[in-house]
Amino acid sequence: MSALDRSHRRQTRQERCIAVWSRLLRTLVIGYGNLDRSDDGVAHWVVNALRRHLGLEALGEDSTGLETLGQTVDSVFLTQLVPELVDVLTAYNLVIFVDAHVFQNAPDVRCAEVVPSLSQPGFTHHMTPQLLLALFGRLHHQELRASVVAVRGHHFDFGRSLSAATAALVEPAVRQIVNLLPASQGKLAR
User: Fold this and answer.
1) How large is the C-alpha radius of gyration of the chain?
2) Residue 99 backbone dihedrals phi, psi, to 5 degrees
3) Residues 32, 39: Cα–Cα separation, whole Å
4) Can you give the CATH number for the domain in which 79 is found?
């Protein structure tokens, strides 16, 4: 093997190590919901508050954030989770999902670990975070740490603004997300 071949091999190993380390230090925050159904779109408000907290530009209503991935902490907003996200997840070691919730016996801002599961609750056209992680694991033979931050919604009629009660939960949700970030990323966000 020539010196050039060995050098190329070393460079390739080095590039692989850099790629692995950069993935180990990256987080993706995925907010999802319907902006046209009032509090169902709370994740858009949370993602934008987080982006401002991180010194990033807020997403417009017509932007997902997928076109600007590449930060240590990336954030996107989608109408719903889709299977195409499986390949996007390969660049991250932590994913934080943000959604509205209506659980009566849950805290206003609920944080929980997401465990991969191939089962879908009932017949639905929506993909759950659990199913997305299970597909990721099956296709990429990797595990991915994930949490969900769910914010209580109060009003789901047609409309583009949040109820006052849900709007008051946006900043506490951002604090929950910042607390979930690894220490090095959390420092970026403070």
Assistant:
1) 18
2) -150, 170
3) 11
4) 3.40.50.1450
Cα separation of 150 and 102, whole Å? 9
pLDDT of 173-185, one tens digit each? 999 999 999 865 6
For residue 68, give the amino acid letter: T
CA distance 189 to 15: 28
Residue 169 has a pLDDT of 97
- Check if the beta carbon of residue 133 is closer than 8 Å to that of residue 116: yes
Query: pLDDT digit string (tens) for 111-125?
Result: 999 999 987 665 555
Q: For the chain, give the percent of residues with pLDDT over 70.
A: 80
Residue 56 amino acid letter = L
**Res 119: pLDDT:** 78
Q: 89 is in which domain, residue-wise?
A: 3-189
Indicate the number of domains in the chain. Answer: 1
Whose tokens are 């240590």? That residue is 72
User: CA 73, CA 94: separation in Å to the nearest integer?
Assistant: 10
pTM: 0.84
